[in-house]
């Protein structure tokens, strides 16, 4: 083979190699462009999906959070009625019946207090006492309470329970009735009680359950805060419908 023939062969091979390289480059370019188009389309679809998802969430009304019920105290009991859950039970506390100062309300003190800083001396400060039923004249002849949960109540400590209605509700204590008005649900009923009107200490009227319990601490006769039945006195209080000397009932009502 002469030199001229060799040169032609080399030129042909180079030409063929160039064509092959160009073809491969063209295929690679087309592939890259195709992949780039697919990626852009996927990004557009993803953006549209995010927009639709956000729009769907924005258009969806807010899901209401479950509302809490209402709190009330069941005086004289350690449990709550069927429509409510118990938060805690305890003992009734308040001001001494012969004190002229201090608090004027009753508290349901929990059975598991937690102390912070304290002293063990009685400094010049306010005080709080336990509470006792004062129903000596009603124990035998004129029983008003149901004694289903206690054989005797006079001078026994008074328990209590703080209750939470299972549904959102408005709660009121309705005096002088044993039944709620239409549209209201009775949580419990009983008798109106408070401090004796001849004592110096004063506190609120509370509705004590019709079947009260006695605190397990038992009979002590330590006095402290005292609970008496409340009797109607005619005059500025219209009679009828009220009756002079008659004990007032009460009922705790909820509106769901």
TrEMBL record:
Higher taxonomy: Eukaryota, Metazoa, Spiralia, Lophotrochozoa, Mollusca
Keyword NADP set for record: no
Gene Ontology cellular component terms for the protein in this record: collagen trimer; extracellular space
Name this protein carries in UniProt: Short-chain collagen C4
Keyword terms, alphabetized: Collagen, Membrane, Transmembrane, Transmembrane helix
Gene behind the chain: LOC115221791
Transmembrane regions: 15-33
InterPro entries registered for this protein in UniProt: Ca-dependent_lectin
């Amino acid at each position: 083979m002469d030199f001229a023939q060799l040169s032609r062969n080399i030129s042909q091979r180079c030409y063929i190699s160039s064509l092959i390289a160009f073809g491969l480059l063209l295929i690679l370019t087309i592939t890259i462009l195709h992949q780039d188009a697919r990626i852009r389309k996927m990004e557009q679809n993803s953006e549209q999906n995010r927009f639709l998802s956000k729009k769907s969430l924005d258009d969806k009304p807010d899901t209401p959070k479950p509302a809490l019920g209402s709190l009330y105290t069941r005086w004289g009991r350690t449990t709550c009625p069927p429509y409510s859950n118990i938060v805690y039970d305890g003992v009734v506390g308040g001001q001494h019946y012969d004190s002229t100062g201090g608090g004027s309300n009753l508290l349901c003190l929990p059975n598991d207090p937690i102390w912070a800083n304290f002293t063990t001396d009685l400094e010049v400060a306010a005080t709080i006492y336990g509470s006792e039923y004062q129903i000596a004249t009603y124990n035998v002849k004129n029983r008003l309470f149901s004694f289903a949960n206690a054989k005797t109540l006079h001078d026994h400590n008074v328990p209590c329970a703080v209750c939470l209605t299972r549904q959102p509700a408005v709660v009121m204590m309705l005096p002088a009735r044993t039944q709620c008005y239409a549209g209201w649900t009775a949580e419990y009923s009983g008798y109106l009680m408070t401090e004796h009107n001849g004592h110096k200490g004063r506190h609120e009227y509370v509705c004590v359950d019709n079947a009260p319990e006695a605190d397990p601490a038992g009979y002590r006769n330590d006095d402290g805060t005292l609970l008496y039945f409340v009797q109607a006195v005619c005059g500025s209080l219209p009679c009828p419908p009220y009756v002079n000397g008659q004990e007032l009932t009460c009922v705790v009502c909820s509106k769901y």
